[in-house]
Request: fold
Amino acid sequence: MKEQDLIKLILPKGLLKYFEILNIKESTESYHIYLQERNIIPEGYSNNKIHSKGFYEPATIQDFPLRGKACYLVVKRRRWINIDTGDIIIRDWNVIAKGTRLTVEFATFLKESNRYISNKYP
Reply:
């Protein structure tokens, strides 16, 4: 198994298709994985004149703990501009659970764990 294949098991599904890992920092309490969106034009815009226009401020998202430490994904999302219309274009992501700073997978896990505990210990 290659290192990249192992990292795919740890990160949310499909994330490495559109993001590259810039850095991983470990502290005594947590891991911070720094990701930057690749310059891949979003679907539906391949016939337009699109130019990469930099990045948004990084967002920090909590994911599943790793080896007993909190794990945070520090995500730097790209934005593009449609040269013809001046519209800003971003890729639509469903990685973050609504109303949280948790990945969808981690939020679902916590929700299901809470249901299990509530049912087992009413």
Notes: DSSP finds three helices and seven strands in the chain. Residues 92 and 119 are 36 Å apart (CA to CA).
